[in-house]
Amino acid sequence: MKKSSLAVLLSLASLISLAWLARAHSSSLPIDSSPLATATPLQVVDAYSRFRDGPVFVPADVGVQNPTKHQVATLDVTAGLYAIFAKGFVKTHGGGGSKVECQISAGQDSDRARLGISRQDSDGDKVRTDEEAFALNVMHAFSSLGTISLKCSADSDDVDFSSVKITAIRVNSYINLPQ
Question: In terms of Cα–Cα distance, which of 123, 66, 118, 52 is closest to 91?
Answer without folding.
Answer: 118
